[in-house]
Amino acid sequence: MKRKSFYMGLGSLVLFIIWTVALRFVDVGAIGPQGSSVGFATLNKAIHNITGVHMSLYTITDWLGLIPICFIMGFGILGLCEWIKRRNPFRVDYSLLTLGGFYIVVMAAYILFEIFVVNYRPILINGILEASYPSSTTMLVMCVMPTAIMQLNDRIKNRGLSRCCSWALCAFTAFMVIGRLLSGVHWVSDIIGGAIFSSGLVLIYYSIQLSGEKEMIKKDYLIRLERKEDYPVVENLIREAFWNVYRPGCLEHYLITRLREHPDFVKELDFVMEKNGKIIGQNVFVKANIKADDGRDIPILTMGPICITPELKRQGYGKILLDYSLEKAAELGFGAVCFEGNINFYGKSGFTFASEFGLRYHGLPEGADASFFLCKELIPGYLSGITGEYGPPEVYLFPKAEAERFDKKFPYKEKLKLPGQLF
User: Residues 39-63: pLDDT tens digits?
Assistant: First the structure.
């Protein structure tokens, strides 16, 4: 995915260069104010005659252009807070570091085209002839909004809210680009150039974000099997990582004690991740089954809890631990993994919606949202031709009171009801 995105982005930038050169030589005509020229003159004039000039729409889109600037400032403040908290710029969330670099490139491109003018606007703005290519508003919106969607999808745990935000930002982007064209303050070639250039930058940013996680972390970590003396540390780690995330307090630190004692617990896949001699992450697997519609029990794995210590989240460690764990599970001959999770994170490691394999989640009504139910084949074709139902193993089901009694062994932490919690 990352290589494909990179090449698609590179191809878009090459197309942008070709389009820009063509604007200087193909059908150039002096159809702008004060005798200013533009390429593809016939096309540009025809579209401009259709749209006309609507200064009210120009004003609206101009003011709405502050929204992507607010996103830039917001992510900048978030990165600055992480820098202050972690006291090292290189420990800031990797995606924020790459996003900051991306914004710098976008700003540099804007300055470049203000200095080296390709063509001017089709109208005067306050009596001034302004540079128009590529459309800066189009470039700003189409660069900031898609990257904001990527950031929000990673950070918003509530799937419904995440989806709503994505659709809202997509609609905003479409409105701004179309509004800018209909306002008549740009040639259509300016809009097209801005869209091509932005698409290229966003695709390259996406590929760098995917590939750069491992490059940043390099080999300052160790993944090994959990040992008995690790148990208290791991339980406390899980408690810190899950506290007030999905519900007030958490149950996962008690769950891990149940899993370790269960016969379906796979000890060969009970992993911890160390950094500088300190345990910073963990992941476990449990044997499970799919009740196939033809009556068979199809052996698979389920997974979790999996976590990274809160101060090192969003730095790529979680994906490395997950990918390593899945690779080892495949080496042991397991065919597939089903579990409940967020596709925005786990999709990066090859998980997809279980419904695509013809699998249903136990007890979930037909037509209900099953986007939390994920699956990944470890052996290609392992689930081919299989339809059936999956339910979490019974060891994952227990009275909440048991977890609350267990939690009394730990230092007191306040339970909070927070937005985005599932329970």
Answer: 999 999 999 999 999 999 999 999 9
Buried-exposed string 188-202: b where 16+ CB fall within 10 A, e elsewhere: bbbbbbbbbbbbbbb
Please, what sign has the CA dihedral across residues 49, 50, 56, 61? negative
Compute the distance between CA of residue 2 and CA of residue 207 in angstroms, rounded to an integer: 4
**pLDDT tens-place string over residues 286-337:** 999 999 999 999 999 999 999 999 988 888 899 999 999 999 999 999 999 9
How many residues in the chain? Answer: 423
H/E element, 234: helix 231-242
- Is there a cis peptide before residue 134, judged by omega within 30 degrees of 0? yes
Compute CA distances 214 → 82, 135, 319, whole Å: 20, 35, 9
Q: Are 292 and 239 in contact (CB under 8 A)?
A: no
Domains and their CATH numbers in the chain: 2-217 (no CATH), 222-407 (3.40.630.30)
- Gyration radius of the chain's alpha carbons: 26
Nearest to 328 by CA among 277, 283, 293, 360: 283
- Cα–Cα dist 189/186, whole Å: 8
- How many Cα atoms occupy the beta-carbon half-sphere of 241 within 13 Å? 23
What end-to-end distance do the CA atoms of the chain give, in Å?
34
d(CA 228, CA 257): 11
283: which 2 tokens? 């992941």
